[in-house]
Specification:
Layout: E1 4-6, H1 8-17, E2 25-30, H2 37-49, E3 56-60, H3 68-74, H4 88-100, E4 105-112, E5 117-126, E6 131-135, E7 155-159, H5 163-176, H6 181-202, E8 208-210
Parallel strand pairs: 1-8, 2-6, 2-7, 3-6, 7-8
Antiparallel strand pairs: 4-5
Helix pairs in contact: 5-6
Protein name: Nucleoside/nucleotide kinase family protein
InterPro entries: P-loop_NTPase, PRK/URK
Domain Phosphoribulokinase/uridine kinase: 26-171
Amino acid sequence: MVAQSVGFDELVQAAGALMFGAGRKFIGIAGAPGSGKSTTVERLLEALEEDHPGQVAILPMDGFHYDDAVLHQMGRRPWKGAPDTFDVGGLVSVLRRLKDGSETRVAVPVFDRDLEISRGSARIIPDDVKLILVEGNYVLLDRTPWDALAGMFDLTVMIDVPEEELRRRLRARWEHFGLTEDQIAHKLDGNDLPNGRDVIQGSRPADIIYRQDEGSL
């Protein structure tokens, strides 16, 4: 099946349609680093909240980053953000708890970008939430161990952004954090953009391709 290419209004409509089904629903939203996943999901949450207040929540994949101490032990700290630097089993476990629905409150971790660490139990998802937006680079990645997420979503979305625009956004991000030119070069061409190509080339086909409206970021 060929994925449907949509703008933001159509994305809201597709997500909103899930609110009327029985049981809790999950949307997997993937994209390369710098594609605007977090911003898109926050916009989507805000739009859905207008008609469904308190019934939508976000589960960010970035909350499952390994701690820097673990990455140092692994020898992978310079490549933080690569597919092997996440606790995929932890994400799968939390999704299963959320799908089970027997708990009244599930605490989930959130990544603090300013501190560059994951904060455990930083967000609560209560049992009256009907739709969970699961966002992250690799939630559709078709390789072990990420393929354990296959079949967990009721709708999947890939955010489509040209690589030259990804490079521009990522450079601006790392400049904002005060990195040197050498550090930025490693981040871009040694980590972020190769990871982005992994996402684009190695993910399962999404139900929807979202192309951001001009000026949406």
